Amino acid sequence: MPERRIAILGAGPVGSTLGHKWARAGHTVAFGVKDPSSERAQSLRAHLGEHVLIGSPADALAMSDIAVLAVPGEVVEELVTTHAHLLDHKIVIEAANKLPHIQKTLSTKKWADHEPLTSLSTLQAHAPHAQVYRAFNSYGWEPFADPLYQGVQADLFYCGPEGEARTVVEQLITEVGLCPVRLGDVDQVEVVDDVLRLWVTLALLQGKGRDQVALKVLTR
């Protein structure tokens, strides 16, 4: 598969896990973070080596063809509006979830109706020429780090447009070790987010464990 140039905005557990796997697969990975000199950013550099760029979001986006939004969901809108010109015309994967909604669910043990987990509409409005996908949001970081469950490869559910960009996104999913399952175009984003709600219910609300649960479609 060809080498890709990937900007990962955010250096938390999800972003760093994905970046580690994609760098190991031979891609050029750049992390865009608020403070490149922070302890977390420097720890990431020590782990991944000097060949991985760690800079500002603008630095990372300027050298990429693919952008992965792996920041807390509540900062996505500001990030998108600030860097819309650098996101436009790219493949953009929104992996962020609005954490306050999930935290409220964990405290009340009940999902509230109609609370969006994504800022996809903001992204579409400000970067209308981007090819936008919703992926890598339906689990915690643990299934990305270890996607095999009793020897069975977990599925990764996503949505986004058909075409060449879909092939790229599925390549990236496969390189993480997951099996890509497309649920439709971006109008199916709520279906993808419902997969997250199911995973949170099983892994966290029912206490089965973040590293013990993933999902698989069985067919015949």
UniProtKB/TrEMBL annotation:
Which Pfam family is one of this chain's hits?
Answer: F420_oxidored
PANTHER family recorded: DUDULIN-RELATED, REDUCTASE
Where's the Pyrroline-5-carboxylate reductase catalytic N-terminal domain?
5-97
Which InterPro entries does this UniProt record tie to the protein? Answer: NAD(P)-bd_dom_sf, P5C_Rdtase_cat_N, STEAP_metalloreductase
| Matches recorded under SUPFAM superfamilies | NAD(P)-binding Rossmann-fold domains (SSF51735)
Instruction: Name the chain's protein.
Output: NADP oxidoreductase
Instruction: Please name the source species.
Output: Ktedonospora formicarum
Traced from the root, the source organism's taxonomic lineage reads: Bacteria, Bacillati, Chloroflexota, Ktedonobacteria, Ktedonobacterales
One MF term in GO for this entry?
oxidoreductase activity
* Keywords associated with the record: Oxidoreductase
